[in-house]
Amino acid sequence: MPRHPKKPRRLVADARVYLWTLRHSHSVLDGNRSCCETLTLYPQPAGTGGPLRIVFTEGPGRFVPGGAPLGSGNVGYVRGATLNLHEPGAVRALLDAASACGWQPEARRAVEIDGWSLLEAAAAARAGAVGPADPND
């Protein structure tokens, strides 16, 4: 049975548990429709820290999924780094990048970060972690 797409997923990072969700939304500014992906991580147990929202808003030279031909959860630069926000490894890389920029899971308030400020570091870390396939596997 497939996982329900709105059910939070579990991620363990540095001995801390997080629940995370990915949501797609639209906004209209000056008559132009824009797509947005919001990745939200909730430190567990509940009440031990405020949520971290990493937001990717469509813009010049950047893409977020809005239908074909882009896959659900893909964000990136038209000519550059990309991530699939459905992949736990990509979520972990963004969490690590946010932590490197000073976000602390113990913060009692919700924090929102522009995902584009984290994308290149997270994609580079993800590319290094994935690497080429080992022919001996």
Order of helices and strands: EEEEEEEHEH
Number of DSSP E strands: 8
Radius of gyration: 15 Å
Name the poorly predicted regions: 131-137
- Fraction of residues in β-strands: 35-45%
The structural domain count equals: 1
What share of the residues lie within helices? 10-25%
Give the biggest sheet. 5 strands, mixed
What is the structural class? alpha+beta
- N-end to C-end Cα span: 29 Å
- Please work out how many helical segments DSSP would assign: 2
Q: Give the integer mean of the pLDDT values.
A: 86
Characteristics:
five-stranded mixed beta sheet; three-stranded antiparallel beta sheet; 2 helices; 8 strands; 36% strand
Which SSEs are present, and which pair or pack?
Layout: E1 9-13, E2 16-29, E3 32-43, E4 52-57, E5 62-63, E6 74-77, E7 82-84, H1 88-100, E8 111-114, H2 116-130
Parallel strand pairs: 4-8
Antiparallel strand pairs: 1-2, 2-3, 3-4, 5-6, 6-7
Helix pairs in contact: 1-2
